[in-house]
């Protein structure tokens, strides 16, 4: 039996190589958010070579004069660095407190990326990297206690809405004039998404993986099991049962399973994509009335399906509580029959885990949108959403110099600005000059190249926490890969991502809505607690109608009313 302890051990060996290609510190001393006040010049002013004491505001637009593009640029270009940040007096030193959700979520004993940023931007950085749910909880606690961080990179807009209503956040339009690179991405649609009651509550983040997440199946196992690509929920279940019971890896052991959530007990993780079989996963309009998966049976059907998988023991050990990185040990050691993943990353990670066996690139294939008795219209979930939101503490606005330094730093690490590559994929040429390089393609895009073997040898386990810096600005929207025998996963991986991008998707109504943040947060906690109870049999589906009424009383009805009003449709 492939036990959990074995999985964890293998995962620790794999995590460095996998995250280095994943296009995939404990909190420092509390800062009062003020400048250090020593007036020392930075040891290295390369963060803004042209800036001097008495920095110039020339060319910085007023908040009311900001121009929001209608769409992303086809091929972004870096801003004129020295001219763009001439407003920042680099002779002043500041302490910046940053929190974000990462992949490793533990400190690096020697964080070379942090050291580079501190030297380049003349700052001291307190860097806290946490899991998504821990980030939300820690953010709320720190703001409530009066110890607010300066910057938080969230994946959850409702948290930002709640804090803004508490008068805790700086309006984003106060900082955006100092962020010309970011302003090429803050589209009219993104601005609307980040606006609540006429105020811009934060800065929309670019998605890391833009609409390339999809269900991937072991097509080699399909062939061995004499099965076709599943098209319906029933066929998915039949495949799940066969994968678990018919020994597709041929080792004579009961050590293969269908899937796992890998969400660390905080949600459905990679299994969340299965809900699309049953209907629209978010707010939507049906028959000119507002609709939600809680109201039309979509959520119920999804949970019943997950319960059926669990009852039949078709899911991996600790399928709900295991963390994402640990779960990779199952996936990449050929123990899992379906995952939800970006295609390029899956193939690259499988190739690396197999000691560069190109035959393993044929193992996986994307699953086209699935259907069910409840939903005959096969489509993936909504696309085009931001990758989250950057919030800035209101106290930052009390120190204009510090606000400008934060704007300078955050903008300088956006694609394809001067320091974009520093913190991405475990460190770019500035950190690993002997092992990494960035090449500009003829079309103006860029290709990141690294010597994986040498880099993995240098990336010791105690350094892996610095990989979470890529959460600050990493995006694959414009990155290209080099097609050559040296990188056999690049072309099929890109093709798979193009295939998933091209699948039909349901309408993204969430981009048109601005629902109450605190209510949305309460409902999220309410749903998470109850959904797993239904799946584990701790609550009967006979209580479903009662549960829906509880959901309405917990805030669901309030959001129904708001969504109907904002979209100009009726209520059910």
Question: What would you say this structure looks like, in words?
Answer:
Keywords: Cell membrane, Lipoprotein, Membrane, Palmitate, Signal. Residues 29-58 have a biased composition (Low complexity). This is Sugar ABC transporter substrate-binding protein. It comes from Paenibacillus nasutitermitis. Residues 29-73 are annotated as: Disordered. The chain has 572 residues and is an alpha+beta fold. The chain has two domains: 4-17 and 212-382 and 508-513, Periplasmic binding protein-like II (D-Maltodextrin-Binding Protein, domain 2, 3-Layer(aba) Sandwich), CATH 3.40.190; 34-209 and 389-454, Periplasmic binding protein-like II (D-Maltodextrin-Binding Protein, domain 2, 3-Layer(aba) Sandwich), CATH 3.40.190.10. It is 34% helix and 11% strand. The protein contains 17 helices and 14 strands. It has helices at 4-20, 81-84, 112-121, 132-145, 157-165, 180-183, 188-193, 219-224, 233-245, 298-311, 324-332, 343-353, 400-412, 452-458, 490-502, 517-535, 544-567; strands at 94-101, 123-130, 151-154, 195-196, 199-200, 203-205, 213-218, 284-286, 289-291, 338-342, 364-366, 388-392, 436-440, 446-450. The strands form five sheets. The chain has a five-stranded mixed β-sheet with strand order 2-1-3-12-6, with helices on both faces. Strands 10-7-11 form a three-stranded antiparallel β-sheet. A hairpin with a 2-residue loop joins strand 8 and strand 9. Helix 12 (343-353) packs antiparallel against helix 15. The chain is globular and about 70 Å long. Residues 1-52 have low confidence and may be disordered.
């Amino acid at each position: 039996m492939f036990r959990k302890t074995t999985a964890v051990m293998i995962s620790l060996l794999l995590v460095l190589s996998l995250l280095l290609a994943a296009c995939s510190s404990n909190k420092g001393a509390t800062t009062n958010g003020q400048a250090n006040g020593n007036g020392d010049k930075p040891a290295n002013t390369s963060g803004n070579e042209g800036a001097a004491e008495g920095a110039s505001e020339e060319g910085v637009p007023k908040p009311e004069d900001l121009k929001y593009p209608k769409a992303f640029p086809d091929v972004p270009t870096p801003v004129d660095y020295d001219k763009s940040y001439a407003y920042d007096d680099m002779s002043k030193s500041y302490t910046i407190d940053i929190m974000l959700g990462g992949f490793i979520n533990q400190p690096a004993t020697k964080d070379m990326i942090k050291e580079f940023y501190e030297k380049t931007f003349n700052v001291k950085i307190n860097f806290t990297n946490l899991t998504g749910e821990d980030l939300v909880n820690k953010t709320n606690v720190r703001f409530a206690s009066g110890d607010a961080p300066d910057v938080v990179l969230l994946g959850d807009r409702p948290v930002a809405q709640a804090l803004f209503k508490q008068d805790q956040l700086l309006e984003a339009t106060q900082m955006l004039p100092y962020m010309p690179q970011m302003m090429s991405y803050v589209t009219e649609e993104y601005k609307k998404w980040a606006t609540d009651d006429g105020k811009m509550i934060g800065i929309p983040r670019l998605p890391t993986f833009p609409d390339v997440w999809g269900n991937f199946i072991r097509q080699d196992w399909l062939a061995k099991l004499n099965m076709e690509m599943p098209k319906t929920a029933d066929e998915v279940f039949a495949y799940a049962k066969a994968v678990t019971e018919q020994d597709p890896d041929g080792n004579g052991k009961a050590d293969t399973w269908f899937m796992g959530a890998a969400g660390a007990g905080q949600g459905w993780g990679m299994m969340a994509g299965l809900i699309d079989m049953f209907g629209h996963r978010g707010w939507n309009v049906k028959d000119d009335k507002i609709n939600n998966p809680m109201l039309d049976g979509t959520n119920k059907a999804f949970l019943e399906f997950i319960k059926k998988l669990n009852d039949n023991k078709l899911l991996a050990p600790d399928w709900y509580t295991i963390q994402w990185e640990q779960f990779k040990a199952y996936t990449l050691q050929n123990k899992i029959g379906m995952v939800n993943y970006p295609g390029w990353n899956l193939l690259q990670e499988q190739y690396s885990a197999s000691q560069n066996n190109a035959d393993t690139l044929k193992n996986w294939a994307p699953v086209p949108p699935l259907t069910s008795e409840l939903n005959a219209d096969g489509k993936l979930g909504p696309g085009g959403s931001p990758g989250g939101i950057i919030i800035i503490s209101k106290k930052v606005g009390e120190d204009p110099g510090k606000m400008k330094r934060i704007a300078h730093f955050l903008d300088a690490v956006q694609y394809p600005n001067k320091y974009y590559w520093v913190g991405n994929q475990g460190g770019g040429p500035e950190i690993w000059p002997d092992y990494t390089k960035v090449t500009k393609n003829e079309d103006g895009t860029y290709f990141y190249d690294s010597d994986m073997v040498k880099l993995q040898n240098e990336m010791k386990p105690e350094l892996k926490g610095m990989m979470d810096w890529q959460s600050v600005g990493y995006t694959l929207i414009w990155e290209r890969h080099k097609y050559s025998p040296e990188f056999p996963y690049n072309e099929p991986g890109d093709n798979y991502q193009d295939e998933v991008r091209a699948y039909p998707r349901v309408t993204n109504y969430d981009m048109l809505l601005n629902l109450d943040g605190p209510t949305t947060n309460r409902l999220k906690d309410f749903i998470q607690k109850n959904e797993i109870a239904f799946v584990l049999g701790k609550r009967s589906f006979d209580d479903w109608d009662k549960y829906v009424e509880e959901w309405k009383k917990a805030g669901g009805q309030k959001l129904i009313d708001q969504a109907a009003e904002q979209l100009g449709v009726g209520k059910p």
